[in-house]
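QA checklist item 7 of 12: single-chain prediction sanity check.
[x] sequence parsed
[x] length recorded as 338
[x] structure emitted
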Amino acid sequence: MKQTASSLRRLALVVRAVVITATLAGFATAPTTAAASSPAPMLNPGLPAEQLESATTSAILGSQHAGNRIVSVGEHGIILLSDDSGKTFRQAALVPTRATLTSLYFANEMTGWAVGHWGVILRTDDGGEHWTVQRSDINVDRPLFSVYFKSQTEGWAVGLWSLMLHTVDGGKTWGEVKLPVPAGATKADANLYAITGSRAGPLYIAAERGLVVKSTDGGATWSYSETGFKGSLWAVAVLKDSAIMVGGLRGGMLRSEDEGKSWASIQTQHKNSITGIEQNPDGSITAVGLDGLQLTSHDDGVTFSGIQRPDRATITVAVPLSKGGPLLFSAGGPLTAE
């Protein structure tokens, strides 16, 4: 059955929230009402996250290194910490929300931010052990999907319907950035799924409708890069050679070597939607996705080969490790090697 634009938007939201694989499959025939575009309300998102025995089997949506520690965020405000390269995990001591957390970014080994549903933004200054709320809006659940800081003071958080927030004081205050209207549209309402930056300065956001939102002047102004891809893009990475890669719906991946002015499509035999792209310490690139997809490139992302895990896990995040790896996370928590 052909999916409508509304159902694709809903599918994209579920991929970022990673509810359950069965839910993803059901969107092709589900009703397409505007109200259903927002994630289902959570009960008491303002309450602190609970310490749960099931924490390590909960959906993890974002993960990053904080020095030698790996910090991971997910549903119900769960934040997992690992100090042994993913062999064992424990919950953070204090997380002041039960909202689903979708992404995080560390400016250094101690200071980091996490974002999620209900527009929540958290900050930690002790490597992820304790967190404080910098922003939330429990009246309107306009979720944030990704966060990026270019320094300890300046950063951006992006989310539903072109929501972009900007801070220059480490998150003490956040102001909303009004994006320009894309060509052929009547308003700026594209969902913004993943933001990252490059050493040279440009900022890139993977968005729906095959759009990449970019800034080449440090976030002062923003423009749209048309990739030629028509589906949602859920992952973005800037490679060591400054090339940009994006990936998303139905296995779509594209690469640009000129700051998003032109894009080359990357062909693979897989049609599994891409949820994450990371470059490993040895220069290889890992792309992961739905139904256990794990792809690897040894030529700077020009070509990929890979496997589909027998467990068909919904892989959400790949975290590079100094030895072996990468470490994978899923809708069921951290994954063991297959």
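[x] summary fact logged: The helical segments are 5-17, 21-25.
[ ] second reviewer sign-off
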